[in-house]
Design goal:
mainly alpha; single chain; Four Helix Bundle (Hemerythrin (Met), subunit A)
Amino acid sequence: MGKSMLIGLGFGFVLLLGLPHISGAQQSSPPSPGQTARASSPQAPASSKGNVDAPEDDPTLNVTDDQKNQIKSIREDSKQQMAALDKDTTLTDEQKQRKAKQIKIATRKQVWGVLTPEQQKAWAEEARDRHEAKHQTEKPQE
C-alpha cells in the first residue's frame, strides 16, 4: 500500500471519528491526558444511536459479542496506556498531550478494524449524518 494511500486512509479515519470532538476540545487551558480521555468519552450518548465514539453501543450495527469483547480489550489497553502516560514525569504537558492524541487515534483505528466492511460503512454514514446535523444547527438559517 502506498504512502499517500495510508496517509489518506489515516486522515479520513481521523476526520470521520474525530470531528464530533473538535469543537468540544477547545478549552481555555489544555487538559491533562487523563482529562482528554474522559472528555472524548461522554457519559451521555450524543445521539439516539449511542455514544458517537463507541460503535459497540450502536444497536443498528449489530456488533457481535465477540466484536464487543475485542473492543473492550482494546479500550482497556488504551486506558492502561493513558494511566501510564499520566504518571510519566519525564514528559512535558505538551508531549503528554501529543502522546494522548496518538493513543486515542490508535485506539480508534483498532476499534475500526474490528468492524466488518458493512459495519464500517454504516458507522461512517452515521458519523457523516451527525456531523451534518451538528453543523446545520450551528449555522443560522438564511
